[in-house]
Design a protein that fits this description.
Strand 3 and strand 4 form a beta hairpin. The chain is 28% helix and 36% strand. The chain is globular, with a radius of gyration of 14 Å. It has five helices and six strands, in the order βαβαβββααβα. It has one domain: ph1033 like domains (ph1033 like fold), CATH 3.10.590. The chain is α+β, with helices and mostly antiparallel strands. It has a six-stranded mixed beta sheet with strand order 2-5-4-3-1-6.
Length: 136
């Protein structure tokens, strides 16, 4: 199993929309590295949902329920999607500011590759973030 983080601008597709939809395909990726990450995702992989630009925080947990296939929003066969299913809303959102100030997260992909919209997360970072989100 691998662990991932996907970013979405809340005004385009928010966590609340994800929860309402329950399952969605993750479309619109037009970066080759992000596309390759989508292609590497396997059914059952866990995925953190991050609000970018507005909020700048990890707000939810999803999982991959269907591996990559042609992005239905384009005829260009270079671009793919995966299907994600909402698993849970984090008890407490984890902000980018908090991540940047936490020494245990100094090597997280979110900081190292800040412009990438789909990225792999180390298991220890993923588990640490989930644990932190359970703290009140």
């Amino acid at each position: 199993m691998k662990y991932w983080l996907v970013k979405s601008e809340p005004y385009k597709y928010s966590w609340q929309m994800m929860v309402k939809d329950k399952t969605t395909y993750w479309d619109g990726v037009r970066n080759y590295q992000a596309r390759n990450n989508l292609k590497s995702m396997k059914k059952g992989d866990k995925v953190l949902f991050y609000h970018s630009n507005e909020g700048k925080e990890i707000v939810g947990l999803t999982k991959v329920v269907k591996e990559f296939y042609q992005d239905p929003t384009t005829d260009d066969d270079k671009w793919v999607v995966v299907d994600l299913k909402a698993v849970k809303t984090l008890k407490r959102a984890i902000s980018l500011k908090e991540i940047k100030s936490d020494n245990k997260l100094k090597d997280i992909s979110l900081i190292k590759q800040s412009r990438l919209s789909v990225m792999e997360i180390k298991k220890e970072h993923f588990e640490y973030i989930i644990d932190k989100s359970d703290e009140t």
